[in-house]
Amino acid sequence: MASPLGHMAVALALGAALRPATPPRRYWVLGACCSVLPDLDFLARGSGARQLETLLGGHRGLTHSVPFAILLGLLVVGAAFAGPESSGLQRRLWLYFAAATASHGLVDCLTAYGAGVAPLAPIS
């Protein structure tokens, strides 16, 4: 199983490659958060919320998918970088946050833990 620090390291490396000229601190913090957020699907399993676990596709299901990463990237940019100071950078910011999130599922594909990853969920 990949560690949260490993996921954050990948996201921060992506962030270094995609960063704007003077990225604010929230750029780095949100990128690291996006990289570990997919593992929050374990809360559904631990809480006994069977319907939520089924909806998410279990651990390494929907939250580990590229469509989820795309959506989360849009949400992060819309919530944290909606001001005029980010107006010309929003596409680049979205690419970073989506890539940071998607990197989690891709790194998990390299591990032998669990029943696999659903990178295209909800498409089966």
Outline the structure in words.
- The protein has 124 residues and is mainly alpha-helical.
- The protein has one domain.
- Helices cover 60% and strands 0% of the residues.
- The two termini are 23 Å apart.
Radius of gyration: 15 Å
How far is the N terminus from the C terminus? 23 Å
Name the overall outline.
Answer: globular
Number of strands: 0
Helix-strand sequence = HHHHHH
Derived from helix and strand composition plus strand pairing, the structural class reads mainly alpha
Number of helices: 6
**Assembly form of the protein:** single chain
Mean pLDDT: 83
Largest sheet: none
Please, how many domains? 1
Which spans of ≥5 residues are poorly predicted at pLDDT below 50? Answer: none
Question: What attributes characterize this protein structure?
Answer:
0% strand; mainly alpha; 124 residues
Task: Describe the secondary structure blueprint for this structure.
Elements: H1 4-18, H2 25-36, H3 42-47, H4 50-56, H5 66-80, H6 90-108
In short:
With 124 residues, this protein is an all-alpha fold. The protein has six helices and no strands. Helix 1 crosses helix 2 and helix 5 (66-80) packs antiparallel against helix 6 (90-108).
